[in-house]
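Office hours follow-up: a student asked to see two folded examples consecutively, so here they are.
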Amino acid sequence: MSLFSRSLFFSFLLFSISPLAWGQQDQTAKPQTVAPAPPLTLQQAIQIGLENNYGIRLARTDEQIVSNNVTRGNAGQLPSVNGNFTRNFTRNNVRQQLGDQDPRIANGAESNQLNANVALNWTVFDGLGMFIAYDRLKALEKQQQQITRATIEESIANITDAYYNVVRESGKIRSLEEALNIGQQRIDLTQGRVDVGVSAKVEVLTARVDYNADRSLLLQQQELLSAAKINLNNLLGRTTVIDFQPVDSIVVTTGLRAEEIVQGVLDKNPRLQQARLGVDVARYERRLIRADRWPQVSLTSGYGLTRNINGAAFFGTQLATNVSRNQGLNYGVVATIPIFNGFNQRRLEQNARVVEEQSRLLLDQTRLNLDAETEQALARYQNRLQLLELEEENILLARENVNIALARYRLGLLTPLDLRVAQRSQLDAEVRLLDIRYQAKQAETTLRRLSGYLVQEGTPRP
C-alpha cells in the first residue's frame, strides 16, 4: 500500500474515532450552569462614573463653594447693617453728703440701662478695589470650572481606558479558549493514531503537556481579567465585586487630523485655560493691592434708643427715681487716607508683581508641556494605526496557516511540533492584535482629552 493510501486510511479511522472521543468528553464534562454577567456599555460606565466618582464629586463641591463666593457683598460693594441691644441692671448702696449736711443714704437702690441701635456702614469708594475684587471672584469661578472639567475629562479617559482594557483581556480569554480547542483536537487526533499504532505515546503526552500549558495561561489570563474588572469598578465608585460583561468592542477612529488636535489644545484644553485664568487672577490681585493706596470713603448712619432708670436720685432730701430717654438718627461720612504703614504697601505690591510673573511662567510651562504631550500622543497614535493595519493582515495569515496545519496534521503530513508552532503563532498574533488595538484606542482617547473634544457641550464622548 502506498504512503498516500495509508494516509487516507488512517485519516478515515481518525475521523471515525474522533467523534466518539468528543462525545465521551461531552458526556463526562457537565459544567454547572452559571448565570451570565449583566451587560455594561461604555456609555453606561461613564454615566455611573460621573455620578459616583469621588474625584468628580469633590471637584464639583469645590466649584459650588467658589460659585457661592461670587457675590457683590463678598466683594465689598454692598453696605453692612448691624443691630445692637444692651440691657444692664445694677443694685448699689449710695451715700451722699454735701458739706456739713446730713448724709443721704439709699441702700439697695436699683438702676437699669437700655441701649438699642441700628448702624449702617457703606464703603462708597476704595480705589475701585470692590469692583476689582468682584472681577477676581468671577475669574476664580471660571478657573475652578476648568479644574472641574479637567477632573471630569481625566476620569472619563481613565474609565474609557479601563473599560477597553476589560474588553482586551476578555478577547485574550477567547483566544486562549480557541487555542485550547485546537489543542484538544490535536490530542484527539494523536490519540487516534496511537490507538491504531501509527504514532508513539510520547506524541500524546507532548500534546497533553502543551494543552496544560495553555490551560495555565488561561488561568493566569482570568486573573488579569478579574483585576481589570476590579479596577474599572473602583473608577466607577462602586463595590469591586460587581460582575459585568463588556458590550462594546474596540473601534479605533482613524480620521483624527493633527491640525485640528493642535488647535483644540490651544482653544479648549482645560489645563491651558486654567493657567490663562491664573494670570488673570494674579493681575486682579495686584490691582487690588494697588487700590489700597487710595483713600477710603464710607457713609455711616444709624438710629439709636437709650434709656436710663436711676433708682438712687435725690431731690433735696428725698430719694426718687430718675428716668432719662434719648433716641434719634445719626449720619456722617468717614474718610480714611493711608499715609504711611512701614513700607508694607510697597512690599505687597512687589510681591504681587512677582506672583503675576510666576503665573505667566506657569502658563508658558503648561503650554510647552501640552505641546510635548500632544506631539507624543500624535506620534503614538499614527504608529499604532500602522501597526494595527499590519496586525489585522497578519492575523488573517495566522488563522489560515493554522487551518492548513490542522488539515495536514489530520492527513499525517505535518509533525506535532510544526502544528504547535502554527498554533502558538496564531495565539501570539491574536494577543498582539488585541494589544495594538487597545493602545491605538488609548492614544485616540489621549488626543481627545488633550484637545478638549472628550467632553463637548457637557456631553461625554466615548
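And the second, which I mentioned at the end of office hours:
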Amino acid sequence: MELKDFSYFLPEDLIAQKPRRQRDHSRLLVLDRNEKKVKDFHFFQLPDFLRQGDVLVINDTRVIPARLFGKKHTGANVEILLLVKKEGHSESQKWEVLLKPAKRMHINDMILLEENCQAKIIDRISEKKWLMEFAAAEGFEKFINRFGHAPLPPYIKRQKNDARNTRDIERYQTIYAKNPGSIAAPTAGLHFSADVLQALQAKDIQIAPITLHVGGGTFLPIETREVERHVMEQEFYEISAASAEKINNAGRVVAVGTTSSRALESAAGKNKCVQAQSGFTDLFIYPGYKFKKVDILLTNFHLPQSSLFLLACAFAGTDFIKSAYQHAVKNRYSFYSYGDCMLII
C-alpha cells in the first residue's frame, strides 16, 4: 500500500500550540467501530464509556528535557535534540542526536552550551543523525535537568527564551510519569487528571502501568513510498509481572496511546497472553495487522502519513478514521501533541 493514501487535510490553525488550561477538559471524540458512528464529548467523561473489569494500560515513561540550545565558535545558534544515550559516566556522555541546522555541521565541530558545558561532534551516523560527546563539570544529567527544554515537536513553535518553556516542562508530561527515558511524550496520557483517575478506580477499573520509552521509532517520519518498506527504530519497553497479571485477567484492555498499544502487541504471545518482560521493539502496526491484546484505543489526532496515524487506521479501518478526522476538522478539534483525543471502541 502507498503512503500517500494516508493523507488528510488539516488547517494549520487547528494544530494546538499550547495545552488546555485543564488537562481533562480536552475534547474527546468517541468512535464506535461496530456502528461506524462518532460522537462528541469531553475527556472528563471517559469513565462513562468504561466498565467494571476493564483494565486501563498506561505508559508511565517520563520525558527528559532533551532539547538543548548552544552556539558554534562562529556565533551561529544550534539546537540539539538528544535521542539515545550511547555510553558515558556522570561528567562525560556520548549521545546520538539530531542537530538543527544540520547542513553546516562537521565532525570535530564544538558547540558551547550554558555553564561552559561543551559538546563535540565525533561522528556522523546518518544523513540526519550525529554522535556527540558532552562534558559538564556538574554532571551531564544534572545539566540537562537544569538547562534542558521540553523536546516539543517542531510544529509547536517555541524559541529559546519563550516564557512558555517552563510551563512545557510540566505540561508535556503525564501526571503519572515515573521512569525517565522518553524524548517525546506519550500524548494520549496528557489528558488524565487526578479526578479522572479517581473516577475510574471508583468504577473498579484497574490501572496497569507499563513503560515504553518514546524515541525515534514513534516520531520519525515514514520516508518510503510503500508503507510495507518502512522500518521502525527500536524502543525499549518493560512490563511488570503485576501489570501482566492485570492485563491477562482484564474484561477489556484499554490501551492509552499508540506506545502502550505497541508494547502490548509486542509482548502478547500466540495465546494472546502477556508475559512480564523487558526488551526492545520495532513493531510497525499498519492496516492489515490483527490486534492480539488491545480492545479499546485512546489516542490523539496524529500527523498524516505517520506511523501513529497508520496504527489508528489498522485498529479502526482507514476509511472510518479518515471520516472521523474530517468530522474533527469540521468541528474544530485541536490536533497533535497538545490537541484533543479520540476513544475507539
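Two things to take away from it. Helices lie at 140-147, 164-171, 194-202, 216-219, 241-248, 257-267, 307-316, 318-330. The chain has a mean pLDDT of 95.
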